[in-house]
Amino acid sequence: MQEQNALTDLHVGPEKPDAAVVRDALGVGVAVGLSGFAFGVTSAGSGLTLLQTCVLSLLVFTGASQFALVGAIAAGGSPFTAAAGAFFLGVRNAFYGLRLSQVLRLTRAVRPFAAQWVIDETTVVALAQPTRRTARIGFVVTGLSLYVLWNLTTLLGALGAEAIGDTAAWGLDAAGPAVFLALLAPMLKTGTERAVAGLAVVLGLGLLPVLPAGVPVLVAALAAPVVLWAQGRRAGGEAW
């Protein structure tokens, strides 16, 4: 009975071999970790030093926020707006942590270290597992492989950018946004998610010529409450 209660927060399904969990987790870690090269190139191209670029990946370790930060800086935005945009993108990880704390049930001593790895990829892999044991394996393997590879490719990307000079002349400044869109697109499965993404794009691109760099990203965050409000109004109208 205690074991059954311990798994109520998980989707209980057929047992999954540990080797299969490790294989899937490594696949995600390697596939996403390689995009750290794009961040290294983009960061160096925006004017950050090699040390600053590497410290960002070591301490921040959330790709969307890192790309938003260096993108805003590259566009001439102030450090405040750049940091604010990165912060709001990273807030979602706090909500991931609330769910993962229920699923993983880690000890208090381990939680501060595990928090560094609470990102999109580790959350998806952990929550896809049928038991707490496999969720923990998926979380650790994904987090470890992604953290190591992301930081290694960040270093290689920054060194490569310094070697080739102007990244904009090679079109490498577009690598970061392209990688981010490639990761985001498959996640837009419902009409609501696609509506939020579409409105965010319209707001971000539409306001780009008239607002300081970094601010359009913050305004685009209003897409989610606007879409949810509109859906609520429509649902209320249909109820009547």
- Overall radius of gyration: 20 Å
User: How would you spell out the order of helices and strands?
Assistant: HHHHHHHHHHHHHHH
Strand content: under 5%
**DSSP summary: helix tally:** 15
Low-confidence stretches: 1-9
Largest sheet: none
Report the span from N to C terminus: 46 Å
Q: Output mean pLDDT.
A: 82
Overall shape? globular
Structure, explained:
InterPro entries: Brnchd-chn_aa_trnsp_permease (IPR011606). This is AzlC family ABC transporter permease. Its main location: membrane. The chain has 240 residues and is mostly helical. It folds into two domains: 2-187, no CATH class; 189-240, no CATH class. It contains 15 helices and no strands. Helix 3 (36-45) crosses helix 4, helix 5 (63-74) runs antiparallel to helix 6 (79-90) and helix 7 (92-104) packs parallel to helix 9 (120-127). The longest helix has 33 residues, at 132-164. The radius of gyration is 20 Å and the shape is globular. The N and C termini lie far apart (46 Å). Mean pLDDT is 82; it is low at 1-9.
Keywords:
single chain; 240 residues; mainly alpha; 2 domains; globular; disordered N terminus; membrane; transmembrane; Brnchd-chn_aa_trnsp_permease; AzlC family ABC transporter permease
Ordered list of secondary-structure elements with their pairings:
Elements: H1 2-6, H2 18-33, H3 36-45, H4 50-59, H5 63-74, H6 79-90, H7 92-104, H8 111-115, H9 120-127, H10 132-164, H11 167-170, H12 175-184, H13 191-207, H14 215-220, H15 223-239
Helix pairs in contact: 2-10, 3-4, 3-5, 3-10, 4-10, 5-6, 7-9, 9-10, 13-15
